[in-house]
Amino acid sequence: MPDYQKMYLALFKASEEAINLLIEAQRECEELYMSARDGEEEDTENSEERV
C-alpha cells in the first residue's frame, strides 16, 4: 500500500521550495528594477542641474 503521508510531505516540501525560489527571484528582480530607477533619477537630476 502506498505511503500517502510520505508522498504528501514530499510534495508539500517541493511546493514550498518552489514558492520560496519564486519569492527570491521576485525580490532580486525588484531590487534590480529599483536600482535601475535610482540610476535614472540621478541622471535626470544631473541633467536638470546642467540646464
Question: In words, what does this structure look like?
Answer:
This protein has 51 residues and is an all-alpha fold. It contains one helix and no strands. It has one helix at 4-50. The longest helix is centred in the middle third of the chain and has 47 residues, at 4-50.
Amino- and carboxy-terminal Cα gap: 78 Å
Mean pLDDT: 89
Helical region count?
Answer: 1
- Helix % is over 70%
What general outline do the C-alpha atoms trace?
A: rod-shaped
The radius of gyration over CA amounts to 22 Å
Number of strands: 0
Q: Strand content of the residues, in percent?
A: under 5%
Please summarize what this structure is.
This protein has one helix spanning 4-50. By secondary structure, the protein is mostly helical.
Helices and strands in order:
Layout (H helix, E strand, L loop, with lengths): L3 H47 L1
Key terms for this structure?
single chain, 51 residues, mainly alpha
